[in-house]
Specification:
The protein folds into 3 domains: 114 residues, Orthogonal Bundle (Butyryl-Coa Dehydrogenase, subunit A, domain 1); 95 residues, Butyryl-CoA Dehydrogenase, subunit A, domain 2, CATH 2.40.110; 148 residues, Butyryl-CoA Dehydrogenase, subunit A, domain 3. A hairpin with a 2-residue loop joins strand 8 and strand 9. With 378 residues, it is of the alpha+beta class. The protein has 11 helices and 9 strands. The longest helix is centred in the middle third of the chain and has 37 residues. The strands form 2 sheets. Strands 1, 2, 3, 4, 5, 6 and 7 form a 7-stranded mixed sheet that branches. Helix 5 runs antiparallel to helix 7. It starts with 6 loop residues before the first helix and ends with a helix. The chain is globular.
């Protein structure tokens, strides 16, 4: 299979990398971690909008670029290289894809142009304590109340909820039991958040919806017979997110490998660089093998994440997550070991890449969870 990228895709990757290298270096990232409460810099976010990355998944009729999975894969790879803390995955990938898939034209027109321009942030609030191993086990309820709905429930580890203007909340419709998605303003009465930082420095929140009243037009898709099925759209969006975070892992893996090789060339023991020791060369060679296998599976995930055959799509994505998760853990641990005590210090970027890789290994289902799914399919 030919994995040569088009000229436009190469430009997308290079433009993303240039922006991150220029405006989002390691010290700039540390400053954002230290000085902002939720890891979000409006200037950086506007910069991502100015180079078109926030519009990548927005349909062309709403001022976007109408990008595909490969475009998203390349953008996320650049995000992984820079360990970008901004809500790119949460808003520009997941929320944007869900709106483009499920929302009515009027709802898209109300939200997507502002998201593409960097003026509005929307995030998907789907995960709950009950959905860790089953994304369909949603307990948040939506009860009909006149012409609108009342939402009640608890959403867990909602990425960048504290930075969002709108939460896209999944909920079970009382009576039918089917899933719906509702656009809820972050300042809605009855919506309560507890923001915190995750182990990799990203922002997340526990979100409680306590009798939150919304209008009928807050239901994404409107619920009419001609609308896309919310459950199908959610599943497709989560698959899209798994593909995206797999690509992010490749960017981080490339950087942690480069840092380890460079350290091996400069750190000396017994009068020579440690990279000359055969045992350490073998460890770095094993890192390369794991990363190259992960890269191939990231490409497979990008190719298969929109496949109409649900079983084929899920099997390919779970297989990719297993290989990539194993690479994240192996390469991350080896990088820390080869750096010695320095590998876990805050001053060294390796520790930050390691934390992000460990978070990715668990995101959208752990390696063990996806391995069980692959085994079940066989």
């Amino acid at each position: 299979m030919d994995f040569t990228f088009t000229e436009e895709q190469q430009m997308l990757l290079e433009t993303s990398r240039r922006f991150i290298q220029k405006d989002y270096g390691f010290e700039a990232r540390r400053k954002i971690l230290r000085d902002t409460p939720h890891g979000h810099d409006p200037e950086i976010w506007q910069g991502l909008a100015d180079i078109g990355l926030l519009a990548l998944n927005v349909p062309e009729q709403h001022g976007g670029m109408g990008g595909n999975a490969l475009d998203t894969m390349l953008a996320m790879q650049a995000m992984g290289e820079g360990l970008v803390l901004e809500p790119y995955l949460a808003s520009a990938v997941l929320a944007t894809h869900l709106l483009a898939t499920l929302a009515t034209r009027e709802q898209q027109a109300a939200l997507l142009p502002g998201m593409a321009a960097g003026e509005k942030i929307a995030v998907l609030a789907h995960d709950e304590p009950s959905t860790r191993f089953d994304w369909q086990a949603v307990k948040t309820s939506a009860t009909k109340n006149g012409s609108g709905y009342v939402l009640s429930g608890h959403k867990s580890v909602v990425s960048h909820a504290a930075n969002a203007d709108v939460l896209l909340v999944s909920a079970r419709l009382e009576g039918s039991g089917t899933l719906g998605v509702f656009a809820v303003p972050s300042d809605a009465a009855g919506l309560r958040q507890l923001p915190y930082r995750t182990v990799d420095g990203s922002s997340a929140s526990e979100v409680w919806l306590e009798q939150v009243a919304v209008d009928a037009d807050a239901r994404i898709g409107g619920g009419g017979s001609g609308d896309a099925d919310a459950e199908s759209a959610l599943g497709e969006t989560l698959d899209w997110g798994l593909m995206a975070v797999s690509a992010e892992a490749i960017g981080a893996l490339d950087k942690i490998l480069a840092a380890t090789v460079e350290y091996g060339r400069t750190r000396k023991q017994f009068g020579q660089p440690i990279a000359r020791f055969q045992a350490l060369q073998h460890k770095m060679a094993d890192m390369v093998l794991h990363i190259e296998q992960a890269r191939s599976m990231s490409y497979l995930a990008a190719v298969r994440c929109t496949d109409a055959d649900l079983n084929l799509r899920r099997h390919a994505l779970s297989s990719a997550k297993v290989v990539i998760g194993q690479a994240c853990r192996f390469a991350g641990q080896q990088a820390v070991q080869l750096h010695g005590g320095m590998g876990v210090t805050d001053e060294l970027d390796v520790s930050h890449y390691f934390k992000r890789l460990m978070a990715i290994e668990l995101q959208f289902g752990s390696t063990d969870t996806h391995l069980e799914r692959v085994a079940a399919a066989l």
